[in-house]
Write a structure and sequence with these properties.
The complex is a heterotrimer of chains A (130), B (125) and C (250). With 125 residues, chain B is mostly helical. Chain B contains 4 helices and no strands. Chain B has a single domain, classed as 3 helical TM bundles of succinate and fumarate reductases (Up-down Bundle). The longest helix of chain B is centred in the last third of the chain and has 37 residues. About 4% of the residues of chain C have low confidence. The chains are: A mainly alpha (130), B mainly alpha (125), C alpha+beta (250). Chains in contact: A-B, A-C, B-C.
Chain lengths: 130, 125, 250
């Protein structure tokens, strides 16, 4: 068992995702980055899909019917999870970066993630209830 | 250390991020929680955009989310340990992507409002 | 009582493939991991390369990774790693060029420290009877206004924070936690507004405080409670406050 990740310069970026330290700050950092990448991909997907609106009511309303299927609603819940995790963790980073709650960065993370969990459950119920 | 000019990136990332908490909150609730069936149909989209305050907020949202997303992409790409020259190219490239994205958003909003108002003109009262 | 432990030590020489060697050593019950490494060198392999000097966490020379985490092996008790007889893995610090085995070239760290222009000194600690002279007992009350600083002097320049930092791992251009903590310490210490401005200018750089991704690994790994992450956040706060002041002073 060699704990070293490759020290090869080209592969060094892999250390972004090295969660083995198991410490809260590192886990928050990785979560933030993974959700960030997911949200950027979604943003451009979303903007592309919105171009259907330019096609007028018939095309858009046909798309809306598809988007109301359970598969799309499940994807919406995943999206909501990403937004909540990234948004609240981002608020923590901004606050500590402006000198607020620096000593409490760990409890802040736990508290924000609890808020995210509650909001996600409420949001998921709302999404599936229509 | 001669990278002074870009030291505002973190600051704007934080400012747009905080703005997004409000704007994205509004956007998500308005489009997916208030709307019946979780998504507005074409007519509902037109009605929503008929409010000029909403249009301003949606445009602000577009600008903030694009800025925040591309600053984030830049920050992740910079962690590849690139040369200063490549980093400058990335900054320029992402700026262009950002401007194109915003222009696309403006065009789409304009088109939807325009076709919406022209198509509703023919609807029976 | 003696402890029998297996060490799994990272081995490397330039132009040769890296490997891990295992060494079975016997050390006293109170031994630290550095003692075990020395046993491996003494009893098994005199070619083993490792660095150390003081044996009591004041020189910062011996820093390595024990089971993946950055530690000073001179103060890491072997008995903390007796995980059911599993070998203790010892590897060099990350984010520094490897010289050989456990030895890395820490010049980059010292160059960063030097770039800030600071001499590192250490304040006194409590005496054996637990007493500490309170300066207000012997000096005029006016001097009671001296601000109690977070002691950056605790830094032993071991390089552990640079090894633990994920941003440092990604890009050598980052100034790094130790250097930024040094700048913050000097900002706190100085009464000279010009010196303070110069120090904040130094930290206000894309590769300075703004490059940190807030993973807090430096503070978690630091063996001397220097708390570099908090120093970085404090510098960000001060630089932002200064910007707003400039903005509204126009």
């Amino acid at each position: 068992m060699n704990l070293s990740l490759p020290e090869n310069k080209r592969l060094r970026f892999l250390r972004w995702f090295d969660f083995r330290s198991g410490r809260l700050g590192m886990i928050a950092y990785i979560l933030n980055r993974v959700t960030a990448i997911g949200l950027v991909v979604y943003l451009y997907l979303h903007l592309a899909v919105l171009s259907i609106l330019a096609g007028g009511p018939a095309q858009w309303d046909a798309f809306v019917q598809i988007a109301r299927s359970p598969l799309f609603l499940t994807l919406d819940v995943i999206l909501l999870a990403g937004i909540l995790i990234h948004g609240l963790n981002g608020l923590r980073i901004a606050l500590t970066g402006f000198g607020v709650g620096v000593r409490g960065q760990k409890p802040l993370f736990v508290a924000f993630m609890l808020v995210a969990a509650v909001a996600l459950i409420a949001g998921a119920l709302k999404i599936f209830a229509g | 250390m001669n990278h002074k000019r870009s030291s505002w990136a973190w600051f704007w990332q934080a400012v747009t991020g905080i703005a997004l908490l409000l704007l994205l909150g509004l956007h998500t609730v308005a489009h997916h929680f208030v709307a019946a069936g979780g998504l507005r149909d074409f007519q509902q989209v037109i009605e929503y955009l008929s409010n000029p305050i909403i249009v301003v907020l949606e445009i602000a949202f577009l600008i903030c989310v694009t800025t925040h997303a591309l600053l984030g992409v830049r920050s992740i790409l910079f962690d590849l340990g690139l040369s200063a020259r490549t980093e400058r190219r990335i900054t320029v490239g992402l700026s262009v992507v950002g401007i194109v994205t915003a222009l696309y958003g403006f065009w789409l909003t304009y088109t939807v409002i325009y076709t919406g108002s022209s198509s509703t003109a023919f609807l029976p009262k | 009582m003696a402890l029998n432990v297996t060490l799994k030590i990272f081995r490397y020489r330039p132009n040769q493939p890296a490997r891990c060697d295992t060494f079975d050593v016997t050390v006293p019950d109170a031994a630290n991991v550095l003692d075990a490494i020395e046993q491996a060198w003494d009893k098994h392999d005199r070619d083993l390369m490792f660095r150390h000097a003081c044996h009591h966490a004041s020189c910062g020379t011996c820093a390595v990774r024990i089971n993946g985490r950055e530690k000073l092996p001179c103060i890491a008790p072997v008995r903390d790693y007796l995980d059911g007889g599993k070998p203790i893995t010892i590897e060099p610090l990350r984010n520094f060029p490897i010289v050989g085995d456990l030895v890395v070239d820490v010049t980059g760290l010292f160059q960063r420290q030097e770039a800030t222009g600071f001499v590192i000194t250490r304040p006194t600690e409590d005496s054996l009877d637990g007493k500490r002279v309170d300066h207000t007992q012997c000096l005029a009350p006016a001097s009671a206004a001296i601000v109690p600083f977070n002691r950056f002097e605790n830094c032993v320049e071991c390089g552990i924070c640079l090894s633990a930092c994920p941003t440092m791992a990604a890009d050598d251009k980052f100034f790094g936690p130790a250097g930024l903590a040094a700048i913050q310490r000097e900002v706190d210490k100085t009464d000279d507004p010009n010196a303070r401005a110069r120090l904040l200018d130094l930290a206000d750089d894309e590769q300075g405080v703004w490059r940190c991704h807030s993973a807090w690994e430096c503070t978690e790994a630091c063996p001397q409670n220097v708390n570099p992450a908090e120093a970085i956040m404090d510098l960000r706060k001060q630089i932002t406050a200064r910007r707003f002041k400039k903005l509204f002073a126009r």
